[in-house]
Design goal:
With 363 residues, the protein is α/β, with parallel strands linked by helices. The protein contains nine helices and 16 strands. The chain binds 4'-deoxy-4'-aminopyridoxal-5'-phosphate. 4'-deoxy-4'-aminopyridoxal-5'-phosphate (PMP) binds next to helix 3. 4'-deoxy-4'-aminopyridoxal-5'-phosphate binds next to helix 3. Keywords: Amino-acid biosynthesis, Aminotransferase, Cytoplasm, Pyridoxal phosphate, Pyridoxine biosynthesis, Serine biosynthesis, Transferase.
Length: 363
């Protein structure tokens, strides 16, 4: 079988070692003679799995003890509404930094659930000569002006990443769906971090929430019980039946990540992968990228062919070469190579070599 490298933005590649392990124990997990999908989430075996997953994730991300960890339903968008319903009450205000498609969508959902007066939006991307740059404003004011500031440090669609820490007097909520565990971060700087699982954690259907204890004292709106953080904490993420198979695979991804040296070791590989691709794009007059160097995403590398009439040909030939799902998001066009934690360096080497060949082939 020839190697296929999958550059999909999500659901995305899962480490091959994890898939092989899952395959080998699909019908008989833990000697139970049944699949992990078919056992009770309250069985002692499954609880042991979830306990270990929590220990591993805490270790991988150095999560302080005053933070709760939740494994929830509803993906990334589920959290767009959960943060509003859990923290805003009927009067609270929130500030949303807009740096691309996903932060914009989060703000729109927040307005839908509250009102325009409660949600303030601040665009932080400047476009000069077709290059997008994040310009972080001075963020100061009364501590109680906003219940939280929401932002998205990695915009999956636009290929924009924010590497600087945000300095502000309000709790920070970060949508890390597409860059969680891609590099080390200081969790203690955040009121809450959330991420849909289908990029760096495992399969879709699961989302992870890391929430500081004091955030749970903010007034909540009436809401669905399964998205209520307080109930989730009280019931160990098992107020209702959780997505158990996704949780199991996530636990295996954590084990894999630990086995290869943890987040810090992988962060270096991620930088190497991204540098290889961006350097090639910059050195070429056939391809180009539209993000300022300081904000180029390490996880989602967007690029355009100078001659866009060749897009379909590029994608077809790439797929033939085993390089799949390179089409950019429909809202921005062009190409996008999502190179999450599970993408090996060889995948990017292969891509660069294909792009070089495609650019120099006669047509
Ligand atoms: N936030 C970000 C940064 C994302 O990339 C995505 C999905 N690509 C979402 C939120 C939405 O996630 P979901 O489809 O799981 O709701």
């Amino acid at each position: 079988m020839s190697t296929t490298y999958n550059f999909c933005a999500g659901p995305a590649m899962i480490p091959q070692a994890v898939m092989q392990k899952a395959q080998s124990e699909l019908l008989d997990w833990n000697g139970l003679g049944t699949s992990v999908m078919e056992i009770s989430h309250r069985s002692k075996e499954f609880i042991a799995l979830t306990d270990q997953a929590e220990v591993d994730l805490r270790e991988l991300m150095s999560i302080p003890s005053n933070y709760h960890l939740l494994f929830m339903h509803g993906g990334g968008r589920g959290q767009f509404s959960a943060v509003v319903n859990n923290f805003l009450g009927d009067k609270g205000k929130a500030l949303y930094l807009i740096s691309g498609s996903w932060s914009k969508a989060a703000a729109e959902e927040a307005v839908k659930l509250t009102s325009d007066e409660q949600i303030e939006r601040l665009n932080i991307v400047e476009n000069n000569n077709c290059i997008n740059t994040v310009v972080m404003p001075q963020l100061s004011g009364n501590n109680d002006e906003y219940r939280y500031l929401h932002y998205c440090p990695n915009e999956t669609v636009d290929g924009i990443e924010i590497f600087e820490d945000i300095d502000c007097p309000w709790p920070i909520i970060a949508d890390m769906s597409s860059n969680i565990m891609s590099r080390e971060i200081d969790v203690s700087k955040y009121g809450l971090i959330y991420a849909g699982a289908q990029k760096n954690i495992g399969p879709s259907g699961l989302s992870i929430v890391i929430v500081r204890d004091d955030m749970l004292r903010l007034p909540a709106l009436p809401q669905s019980s399964i998205m209520d953080y307080r109930l989730g904490v009280k019931h160990g993420s098992m107020y209702n039946t959780p997505p158990t198979f996704a949780w199991y695979l996530a636990a295996e991804v954590f084990t894999w990540l630990k086995s290869i040296g943890g987040v810090n070791a992988l962060a270096q590989v991620n930088l190497d992968k991204a540098k290889l691709l961006y350097d090639f794009i910059d050195s070429s007059d056939f391809y180009h990228n539209t993000v300022a160097v300081k904000n180029r995403s390490v996880m989602n590398v967007t690029f355009y062919l100078k001659d866009e009439t060749l897009n379909a040909e590029f994608l077809a030939e790439a797929a033939e070469a085993g390089l799949v799902a390179l089409k950019g998001h429909r809202s921005v066009g062009g190409m996008r190579a999502s190179i999450y934690n599970a993408m090996p360096l060889e995948g990017v080497v292969s891509l660069v070599s294909f792009m070089d060949k495609f650019a120099s082939s006669e047509r």
